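Whether sequence alone determines local backbone shape is best considered at the level of individual chains. We regard such an encoding as a compact summary of how the chain folds. The sequence in question and its structure tokens are set out directly beneath this paragraph.
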Amino acid sequence: MKALVYTAPNEMTLMDAPRPSLAEGEVVLRIDAVGICGSDMHTFHGHDSRRKPGLILGHELAGTIVEGPGAGRRVTANPLVTCGTCDYCVQGRNNLCSRRTMIGMTRPGAFAEYMAIPVASLIDIPQDMHVRAAALAEPAATAWHAIHLASRSLVRPMAEGEVLVIGGGAIGLLSALLLGRWGVRVTLAEVNPLRRASAAKYAGCRTLDPREGPGPAENAYPFVIDAVGAKVTRDTALKAVQPGGLVLHIGLQDWASEIDMRKLTRAEITLVGTYTYTTADLRGTVAALHHGDFGDLAWVEERTLDEGAAAFRDLDRGRSAAAKIVLRPH
């Protein structure tokens, strides 16, 4: 089968790979669509020691079972392979499972024509669901989980004030789309002019370039989402949030930095970290996508698997307006 393999930093190579065989407790999927995630780009840049060269990346998938239970059924999947028995899994918070592994990290991923996956990881989808929407379930579930988590800590309903979203990548744009659907006013800060234009067109939100002028206004937003996770965006988020407000930290571009602890303390800022999604989040997100709660997804760009290496280069160089490129192996 064809597979797009991470072969070295800044290098993705299309090559032949063995088709996965069926193992007990698993199925073999034909991959119908797979999205390029920010974490895949992080690996592409050589910044993730957990993902070694020689690995098939890709975990945002839609596929069809071709071997194993349920053959012929279309599905998406939870790429976090969890133990199912620890306290977190039993509580329904399996995204925090300490024994979790991950598709496209500890086992071959979905940038290929076929992939093996545990049956327990499968997420049912409506059989008439568009393949593009099904492939967006994983990143959309990250936004879904994060915003619902934040809503528990907000003092007032989020629709009462304007929300600042920092970052116009897939998670930032999906967050803006969902918030807009719920009647929330959104300003999106993004440095790439192509992505700013796409966010304005498809999410209908106000956009700004945080590098121009003073950037987002100081103490202006009761709720700020950092969908980038770099030192500069953390600083921007803490500066922009109102006293008593909430900063939701989703992105993981930089793994450590100083933040303004003085403002965090004296202004009683709530800082909430959020990681991926639970299985329940994925199921809820599939229904929301199918019902159009994230819009028509016309901003998503589709390419063939053969064009995957070029897609990585285009994303790296900021040449694509699309916050998400989805590859179609078949």
In short: The two ends are 11 Å apart (CA to CA).
